[in-house]
Fold this sequence. Notes:
130 residues; 4-stranded antiparallel beta sheet; 4 strands; extended
Amino acid sequence: MRTRVWRPALGRKQPLPSADTLARTLERLDAGELWTYNQKVIQQARHNKVWSGRSIGGLMVIAVDGTELYKTKAPQRACKNCSTRTLKNGKVQYYERVVAVSLVGRAPRVLYTIEPQRPGRMNRRRPIEP
Length: 130
């Protein structure tokens, strides 16, 4: 685990959890509850005007970023929503991608949404409207 990520969150005196401990914890979390909590935090921050004075003409800058979370060549490890691709050596690889939208600038940085890219929707491009 990268200590520069966890140290500030846990404090210097706390021992870092093992990867297995983190995995067990994540398995027990309810993603729906976390999502609801995140949305409430964003609403409260807006209500408290946390970002006032950090806009340009009343507008704020967001970043849209895509990333590949997971990949494997083992079919038994593939998730039900994984996309597939055939590699140069002829083997099939299973992977999962997401797109996230977050606020750019000074803290607090907020993740507004994260959406999975489903199979068959990877290369569709929509024109950008002015």
